[in-house]
Amino acid sequence: MKKRYLQPRVEVTLIYTEEGIAAGSAKVYPYDNGNYIQDEWTQEADDNRNIDW
Q1: Which of 2, 12, 17, 41 has its CA 20 to 30 A from that of 49?
Q2: What are the DSSP calls for 1-53, one per residue?
């Protein structure tokens, strides 16, 4: 018994959101307990390890 051929098709679904999917996922406060705004990130030392894959 032969199977019936169904041609491939592409479907697109557009989703409109009021804000964004992850807009309310996290809150970021750029100031510390003393209300000092941190304008630079602390840069850690480079990690120069060899990692075997």
Answers
A1: 41
A2: -PPPP------------SS-TTTTS-----B-TT-PBP-SPPPPPP-------
d(CA 47, CA 52) in angstroms, rounded, equals 14
Angstrom CA distances, 51 to 36, 45, 47, stand at 38, 17, 11
Per DSSP, what are the bridge partners of residue 37?
31
**Residue length of the chain:** 53
**Tens-place pLDDT, residues 22-53:** 666 666 777 777 777 766 667 778 778 888 87
